[in-house]
Queue: 3 jobs
Job 1
Amino acid sequence: MPSEPATSTPVSLLEKVREAVPDRDVLLISDHPPSPVPEWVAMTLSSTETLAMPRLESRHACGLILTPWMEPEQVDAVIAHLRDFLSLELYVLHPGDTLEQARRMGALGLRCLEIFDADGQPWGLNHFSLKTYKKTPSWLNSRFWANPQRWNKFRW
């Protein structure tokens, strides 16, 4: 189990996340949620509750994961479950800014939005959205889809 940070997630960081997700109710995933929970958080779940949650008919608009109290493998599993089944958009707030963390987040489809400094410690904010995850390549369109220039030239 990771060592518990001396303090909980700084409230200033949560407010910066709130600026990134205005006018939305947020699903917060944390094993030690901030006290008091901000009013803009619609629901709070622990990491084990999240992994036990079945696929939903409709996804939450936005999910926020606070990772300081989770093992790296558990963080990866929660991110994948939330990304694939529970939310359309996902933010991950984690302490530290290492190359290993950046690679892990990138491998899960997240991109770094910003690095914050709170009480002398760096915190990374990563983001995933189904809408902007993959850009459509220029060759993937109806013009090139069926290779009309090769019709009647080869016998398949």
Note: Residues 1-7 have pLDDT under 50 and may be disordered.
Job 2
Amino acid sequence: MRQVLSLSLPMQVTKEIKSLSKKKGFVSVSGYVRHLVESDHDTISDKELWKHIKQGRKEYKEGKCIVAKSMADLLK
């Protein structure tokens, strides 16, 4: 079931959203907004990013890192 969501945005923002949705090949602004919401689910928070950075630093200090000359070396 679909529902209508109304947004109040400045005219310039509305124009930009319509332009971007068209440039990116979306049939409608709704499709573009759905894409943005779905993309947001894949984005980690600042807090989670810092957690990963701190863990990486800790592992680096403990010598738990791989020294590689190339990406191919990492995949071996």
Note: Residues 34 and 40 are 10 Å apart (CA to CA).
Job 3
Amino acid sequence: MKKNKRKKSIFSRLVKSYVIFLALSIFLYFAVAVIFLIKMGNGDVGNISPQSIVQKDGSLNDLNVLEKNGGWVEELDNEGNVINIYGNQQTNKASYTISELANLLDLGYIDYDNYGVIIKNPKEQTKKSYSACVRCVGNPEKVFLVCYPSDMVDYKITFQLTGGNGGSAGSFILVLAALFLTEVLLISLYLKRHIDKPIKQLMSGMDEVSNGERDVVLDYNTDKEFEDIRDKFNRMARKLKESEEEKHQIEQRRNQMLLELAHDIKNPVASIKSSVTALNEGLVSDDKLKDYYRTIDMKAERIRTLTEDMNTSLKLESDSYELVREEKDVCEIVRRICVEFYEDITATGKDFDINIPEEPCMASVDEKLFGRVINNLLANANKYNSSGKLIVLNLSSENSEILIEVMDDGEAIDEEFVPKMFDEFARGDKTRKTDGGTGLGLAISRKIMEKHNGSLKYIRAEEMNCFCVRLNAQT
């Protein structure tokens, strides 16, 4: 699987999208503005600016835009007299004084408001303000005044040349609004498409899981947040599959346990039934009566042991089953059990080597169940160690952990049997013998240790079978 590059978050994507959106908006604004200016200037933006009407060589640009907005150009001689007029002059000014020209050259514009300029429309004898900018160009030098209505141009900040009806400005605003809405729509569609893809895959995956599919794996590359959701969904689907597989295995084990229990109970029940029948029919002689009663008692005891062990095993598998835990000295518990087993072990001719420290090792345990684990391990070591002569029990504490080792020098357990030795009804002998153990002892012992958050394992070390019990110590 390829290593993913560091992914961007949705927030960074949104920021990036809106930065692009802003940049595009500014670009489009200026683009549309330039297009409108070119259109207004009859193909040349310079036709709109009063300062650029007169070229450096003394020739004039297209005056249509200037005339359309009520402006004109005056050419002056060296004495300030108007010698040529280009366009439709809106004033009665024929010459300029030296003072006026000096102000004009100093400021770059002149205000005609004091001269009572008369609009040509005879119906409206109203004063109107005009402004002008000076251009001294050419060789020999020529002086031009570019005149325009003052209310049509703000020469200090911007300039505006529009028709009297404002149609161009309205069209400009409409085009900008249309482009803005189009851009918003495209950005929204982009984000929607980018977010929709992972959401649809997530919804599809959920539908598959709800329909019973368990091998669902989402695989897409997108923003970090959605990849986190993808990974969590995959983990959830995997755990759900594992949980159902584990549940199926538990059900299979329980069914197998019931079959094994039925098998193990069948023979003692048959033996009890045949003994009772023989007794009822008077087929048993007086000297054999005790043997028959003893057989019935033994078989009944075996049935009781089987059912109790089965009940304990099923209870330990239940999540609702809680141990009765108390702070206990594990050394004292194990020491007491060793005392109980000492006579039985030495009676078989084996040596029993016990190594338990004097200082207490405290732990939170269910004393009855924990004692059953040690009991079972010692019983198995004594019962199945037919070729050896030594049983060892070591107890030690290190790094907040208590370790108990029950070892014997008997033959190694069959390697094929080791992986399943902690399963229910597992037995090391090749044939099923109903007079043997129940096959639940090690399975129950491991479940008890798991309930204690500990462990029970088997290893073969130094020519000895070793069962290792690990338990968290109380600190």
Note: Confidence is low (pLDDT under 50) at residues 106-125, 155-166, 429-435.
